[in-house]
C-alpha cells in the first residue's frame, strides 16, 4: 500500500538526496517500521519498486520538456550506484529482486528522459495527450512527400546537404516544441512533435 509524498527525502543519515518523491511506504516489508524511501532508514533494506512511478519523479526532475541533461545524468549515476544489484549480493533473494527492479526502473526512466523526442512523447502521455488523433496540415504533408522523394533519389554528392537541410528544419521545430510546452499548450506540442517524428525518420534514413 502506498501514500503520496512530496519534497525531497534523505536516507543513509542524510548523506544522499533521495529523488523518489511520488510515494511513501507505510511500513518496511522486512522490519515493519515506517519507511519513506527506497531504502529503509531503520534496517537498510531496499523496498519494492513502484512500477507506475512518474519518470520525472524517479530522477528528481521537474515535469517539463526543458531539462538539464547534465543534472539528469548525475542523478542517474548516483541512483544506479545506490541501487546497483552488486551492493545486495549477500542479501536475500527477495531484496536482490527489489534492487534489480529499482535499478531497472531508474535506467528505463533515464533512457526516456534523456532524448528529446522520447521525453516529449512521455510528457504528453503524462498529461493525457497522445499523437493518435493528431491531424497535420496538408501543406506539411506535401512538404514531407517532397522530402521523402528527395531522400529516395538522393545521390552521394548532395546527400550531406539534404541531411543538413532536414536537420535544420527539425531544430527549428524543436524550438517551437519547447515554446509550446513552456506555454502549457500540449495540443500544439503534440502537432509539432508529430512533425518532428516525420523529420527524424527522414534523418535516420540518410545517416
Automatic annotation (TrEMBL):
The keyword Chaperone applies. One of its GO terms (biological process) is [2Fe-2S] cluster assembly. GO terms for cellular component: mitochondrion. GO terms for molecular function: ATPase activator activity; protein-folding chaperone binding. Residues 54-126 form the J domain. The keyword Chaperone applies. This is J domain-containing protein. It comes from Varroa destructor (Honeybee mite).
